[in-house]
Amino acid sequence: MKIGILTSGGDCPGLNSVIRGAVLKGVISHEAEFVGFRWGWKGVVEADIMPITRHDVRGLAKQGGTILGSSRTNPFEGEGGGPENIQRMLDEHGIDAIIAIGGEGTLTAARRLHDEGGINVVGVPKTIDNDLAATDYSFGFDTAVEIATEAIDRLRTTADSHGRCMVLEVMGRHVGWIALHSGMAGGAHAILIPEQPQSIEQICEWVESVRDRGRAPLVVVAEGFTLPGMNEAHSHKGLDAFNRPRLGGISEQLAPMIEERTGIESRATVLGHIQRGGAPSAYDRVLATRLGMAAVDAVYDQAWGSMVTLRGTDIRTVSIADAVGTLNRVPQSRYDEARILFG
């Protein structure tokens, strides 16, 4: 069998570990042949293909990014887009199935290609936001939390030196898992997430409480957080290929509001793509490798339109529809647990 692999959407630590796990499992257990599509779905619609051998994935688990490249291309657009054109391309190159590694947008596209065109595709969940339902954790999340926690630790020393309030913005379009975990790990004095809108008055109350105890306040905010009265998350960077707003900058809105109301000098730091870069953590390397191996098993089981997933400590297979239909939101109980530590 000849299997094509792609990495689409935003990059994250662990993508190469998935590729390595899939190739090694396929070659060793099934004598499969692998190719990669360069630049995600763009490589599919443009037939930009490269071979992937066992030699090519040697030592790849510890390497960040993706050897295949990634983009936010919509496979239903362009001259070579759509299920009919894609199936024709697959037939011409003798490719029997696609393993699509990506997040919500990537998996939604994969599901449509299967449902509308019968494309043989299996998904692997990838998102540092940890926002995909049907999987307890996705690889890349653990590494992103570690990076954000280190940033909090570093910001704390400079905040203490000047008596400033630091507002750290982390990724999290729809859910606040990175903010919640890094904020708790780093001892943040307030954690602001999309699931829990908070008033500027409440935020300032937490900040002033910290100041009154002789500490420098540190606030962690997810990029998708909204204040009451905001109809949507802050965005000034236009739309991506799936017509979703490119978020970022809410911390730069909050910091001057906090300073104006409290009189505490405040600074914003947008962590941005640093959260996506660098080598994956040990946890993410193991999880990504296991998911890659399981994706190959799903291909040989002809579980088309499915996605491999983590449930507890077990790797299972579920419908992609179950993964993209709902979001893995931070439950109220988890936020209430963290809120006790605010202020």
Account of the 3D structure:
This protein is α/β, with parallel strands linked by helices and 343 residues long. It has two domains: 183 residues, Rossmann fold (3-Layer(aba) Sandwich); 136 residues, 3-Layer(aba) Sandwich (Rossmann fold), CATH 3.40.50.460. Helix content is 39%, strand content 19%. The chain has eleven helices and 13 strands. A seven-stranded mixed β-sheet has the order 3-2-1-4-5-12-13, with helices on both faces. Strand 12 and strand 13 form a beta hairpin. Helix 1 packs across helix 9, helix 5 packs across helix 6 and helix 7 packs across helix 8. The protein starts with a strand and ends with a helix. The model has no long low-confidence stretch (mean pLDDT 94).
